[in-house]
Amino acid sequence: MRSSVSALALVVSAGVALGWPAAAQTPAGSPDAAATARATPALWPMAGSPEAMSDAATEAFVTELMGRMTVEEKVGQTIQADIGSIRPEDLLQYPLGSILAGGNSGPGGEERGDPQGWVDLARAFRASAAARPGARVPLIFGIDAVHGHNNVVGATIFPHNIGLGATRNPALIGRIGEATALEVAVTGADWTFGPTLAVPRDDRWGRAYEGYSEDPEVQRAYAGPLTLGLQGELRPDRPLEPGRIAGSAKHFLADGGTAGGRDQGDFRGAEQELIDIHLGGYVQAIDAGVLSVMASFSGWNGVKHTGNATLLTDVLRGPLGFDGFVVSDWNAHGQLPGCSNESCAAAFNAGIDMFMAPDSWRPLYENTLAQVRSGEIPMARLDEAVRRILRAKVKTGVFREERPVEGQLQHLGSPAHRALARQAVRESLVLLKNEGGVLPIAAGARVLVAGGAADDIGQAAGGWTLSWQGTGNVNEHFPGGQSIWAGLNEAVAAAGGEATLSPDGTFAERPDVAIVVFGETPYAEFLGDLRTLDFVPEEPLSILRRLKAAGVPTVSVFLSGRPMWVNPEINASDAFVAAWLPGTEGGGVADVLIGDADGAARHDFSGVLSFSWPRDAAGQPLNRGEPGYDPLFAYGYGLSYARPAVVTILSEESGVTSAAGGADQYLVSGRINPPWSLILEDSGGQTRLGGEAAAESPRGGVSVRAVDDLAQESGRRLTFTGPARAVIWGPPVDLRREINGDLALSFRYRIDAAPAGALSIGFGDVLVDLTDELAAGPAGEWRIHKVRLSCFAEPGPEAIESPFVLASSGPATISVSEIRLSADVGPANCPAT
User: Fold this and answer.
1) Is 525 a catalytic residue?
2) Burial class (CB in 10 A: 0-12, 13-18, 19+), 697
3) pTM
């Protein structure tokens, strides 16, 4: 079906079909793109790393060390490997400069490993690096501590940045940086990939919650205090104080400005907009001494930043005056024209000093070494990068033998840090509505607490929490943490009342007031991208309407990583609170909602919107200062007990169809999710089915009918009588970023009749034989199988129309349900293709 259509046309049609502007699909590296993605340094503001970053003693030490280093050791400094793909003993052979722990990596492969395991892992890697003969340059260990030390069980999980943006409290941000640094340092890491300075301009972006605000004024106010909180002030002739860690301002540049809110996408616009909006807090972070900058996956007018020397070198090293080192994002170099994950001189020559090469580090090291020896990478460029990395290592303190705070695990999730996080929660809450004075809740009240999120710390914490996507977490994974329900229950009891938890909102005795906690379930990049901002789960609204019909005053606490269209839920609530993603300290919600024993407010609402709230669900960019700006609740809006206001009944016309599917979910809750269809194929032709129509239909050698799985008719039974295929088909979609992101094709299945031939699973045009794997379990038992998308990377589809194919060469009966992309990959080997 694709043979007569160019790859470029496929990518363009995929973007249009999924709601991305056609202009956003210009291929990277095209001549037209290069002409419109060339920065003019004279337009950019002046900044500069402090003189203490490159003081005379530091430079002399680095010069002497480099004089003893071999070219192999120098190249090693430019390579960073993920702990999931490297062992400590590998460092005896490969002189790498850095390791990282990605979102799904942990000690011994355990995402939720114990804190001592993190300490032991760091020490094991450092010991191996020190045992290698030669210059013996210590490692620098980086980790994504983006809302506290969020990878480690027992750490304090602060609100995500979208909530912190609502506090408008730079001093608080600095204290959070200091607390985070200490918790990271005690577990053995040296460096965090933050502050995140993205300025999200399209709330459909799955990383919107990592940005403080749609307006760069907040990033400018926060970047300096957070950098100083993490690192402390740089001083000449000495490293960071114990308990401080290196920071990394990210993602340079305009990752929050990609067309359609597509992660790893393209910013289409003029250079002045890059400067006025997306430069955000980088000036302030550089002036504060941030030791590294992470280049973005994204691009500008079709040219990926990772290969744009005019930004990485001419601007960053020119007017911005940055003297630290630039690290790339996860295998981002492999997205440049002419490059792969295993080889990319172009990125290095453009200004990348350290490759983040999580699983490609070994061949990338060998190829980079060969490119230096051949002159493709000039020796002067290598020495420049190594000097920058060593300079930052000296300042970070990795050459210092003593680590006085490492292993002092009493600081992890300490009472002082949890109190700070609780303050951040209460200051981040934004009151959108409070009719009839339902808040604060009076003393002695009978309070019903409803909603599945009320007693779920994992949902309150969101993505980038213990795992990359933040899924699979339960309250036991947060020792010392407090759910919103637990905080409410404690506060209500202290005020002389009684609280009851009822997730479905039912009650035997009518309560005085109900608090319903609901919202988005955890997600991160890739899987968090949306086509609309329609909040689609139906259960919260049904609970609210049932309570309203019973005459129960109702307070909604909405958990989300972005503003969403929730007009029906707001209408059904007497009070509505945007609580964002508050983290582990749910008591901060109760601090503001529940009055004291005298009925007076213990804390007033102080948070204000740092993102404009949408009037409809379409999700088109909505930012203060843009033409036609007409939000439901404007940037800076926020009621309080001292500043009440009436909210009228809101329109419940969403402006979008209810069938707003995603590019990562194919069969969900018994429906083929638009824009996808189910095609049944055999030698005689094909039959196309879509949505609920795919419940029951024959096609020669294969037929389909609905079956029950997790819910009534949520699965599909495929009966093959001969060679045939069942294909999820839709508009061509470019899934190269998902392949790079280590996602998996996941599906639930049940073997109902043993296959008489081969069963194969396909992704695009590539089929893999899974007969043995699928038939290994007992017949009649539902199971889940996952195949890494990287298994389908060759020949590397640019765009595919069929993200799931099930083919049988003979008679077989197999039921399938929940076909989707998954970030929870787990250990898996690629089957033979």
Assistant:
1) yes
2) middle
3) 0.86
Return the residue matching tokens 């189910």: 678
Q: Tell me phi and psi for residue 400, to 5 degrees.
A: -75, 125
Backbone φ, ψ for residue 371 (5° rounding):
-70, -30
Active-site option among 215, 263, 287, 525:
525
List CB contacts of 419: < 8 A, sequence separation 6 or more.
Answer: none
Cα three-residue angle 803-808-814, rounded to 5 degrees: 85
The CA-atom distances, in angstroms, between 242 and each of 8, 676, 679 are: 52, 54, 61
Q: Convert the pLDDT of each residue in 787-805 to its tens digit.
A: 888 777 654 456 778 888 9
DSSP state of 451: S
Amino acid at 116: Q
CA nearest to 520, candidates 586, 564, 468, 570 = 564
329 is catalytic: yes
Q: Find out whether 582 and 428 touch, Cβ atoms under 8 Å.
A: yes
Give me the phi and psi of 376, to 5 degrees please: -60, -40
- In sequence order, which residues have a C-beta less than 8 Å from that of residue 384 and are 6 or more positions away? 353
Q: Which residues of 728-743 are buried (b: 16+ CB within 10 A; e: fewer)?
A: bbbbbbbbbbbbbbbb
HEC string of 110-126 equals: CCCCCHHHHHHHHHHHH
SS (H, E, C) 387-406: HHHHHHHHHHCCCCCCCCCC
What is the predicted pLDDT for the residue at 511?
A: 98
Average pLDDT estimate for 509-519:
98
Closest to 247 measured CA to CA, from 294, 297, 298, 187: 294
For residues 577 and 441, the answer to whether their CB atoms sit within 8 Å is no
Q: Give the mean model confidence (pLDDT) for residues 517-528.
A: 92
**Count of CA atoms in the C-beta half-sphere (13 A) of 646:** 2
Q: Helix or strand or coil: residue 510?
A: coil
SS3 assignment, position 537? coil
Number of Cβ atoms within 10 Å of the Cβ of 794: 9
Q: The tokens 């009684």 sit on which residue?
A: 498
Has residue 170 got a pLDDT over 60? yes
- Active-site position among 329, 353, 456, 709: 329
